[in-house]
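The methods section describes the discrete structure representation at length, but only in general terms. An entry of this sort, consisting of the sequence and the corresponding backbone structure tokens, reads as follows:
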Amino acid sequence: LPGHGAVYEDNKCVLPDSDNLGNLFYDCDCPGASHSDPWSPGDDDPEHECGVRFAGNQYFTKDANATVSCSDPSEAWKDWRAHNEPDATLEALPTDDELLDWARAVLRAL
């Protein structure tokens, strides 16, 4: 229901073996107008369509490149970002030491 969905905010998403962010969304429907159609310009506000909001997430892929392959053709990450999560970042994979530092910081905060 609109207004009762999930918020994915300020996360780090590390994809070592893929550059397809479309794999992050169940059946590529959120943000989206239906269970099979990804969101596109001109559709209703995706937050009101499926109740999922993305904000401030960091995405990491092997070469700091990504697509959102929910349908054919794939949507460029920069286009998806512009419509769904303008404050998201896309970077190259972190080092093992960076991953461990992130884990230590989370554990210290508990």
Summary: Strands lie at 7-9, 12-15, 53-55, 58-61, 67-68, 75-76, 89-92. The radius of gyration is 15 Å. Residues 96-109 form the longest helix (14 residues).
